[in-house]
Write a structure and sequence with these properties.
171 residues; four-stranded parallel beta sheet; three-stranded parallel beta sheet; 25% strand
Length: 171
């Protein structure tokens, strides 16, 4: 699929086919008014630059089947606040590739991911990374939440007002 929506500055929302498995490189790059998108559960890969400069997106949820994430996917998404990664993104050995994947995500974003990926993503991302279990889409009045990863015994404490996130060592 050619990046047919690239530069469509009037596009505000889109519905994708439930049969789609890959979001091609640059698919929505430069769609500055794109506010919402529901990525189908059939998608397994998001290629490079797919959402680059989508400056009106505030939340993106990658379905569980997404295991491949290209570089610079969210670069320039200046309004993005929440990135939910439901699956396990395959780790690559190249530090440079990982920095291009996660290091270009705006730092105001909170990334929610599988608990076993928190530390890996945090190495390359300067914002907040929390386990998926802590994601509360409508939580405004909750002051704090704590989560202990049963496998690693790492304790995560997060102030849901967005002011504090702490990762403590296990017992």
């Amino acid at each position: 699929m050619y990046p047919c929506f690239k530069g469509c500055t009037a596009l505000e929302s889109v519905t994708l086919s439930k049969k789609l498995s890959i979001l091609p490189s640059g698919l929505f790059s430069g769609c500055t008014k794109l506010k919402s998108i529901e990525i189908p559960t059939s998608v397994t890969e998001v290629k490079a630059y797919a959402f680059e400069d989508c400056s009106s997106l505030t939340t993106i949820e990658l379905p569980k089947r997404v295991t491949q994430l290209g570089y610079f996917v969210f670069r320039g998404c200046s309004s993005l606040k929440t990135l939910i990664i439901r699956g396990n993104i395959e780790e690559v050995s190249s530090r440079n590739v990982n920095e291009q994947r996660f290091g270009t995500i705006p730092e105001q974003v909170t990334i929610y991911c599988q608990p076993e990926q928190v530390e890996t993503i945090q190495k390359y991302f300067s914002g907040t990374v929390l386990p998926l279990d802590m994601y509360q889409p409508d939580a405004e009045s909750v002051s704090a939440k704590e989560y202990t990863d049963p496998a690693t015994k790492v304790v995560y404490t997060y102030d849901t007002n967005g002011t504090t996130a702490t990762v403590k060592a296990g017992y």
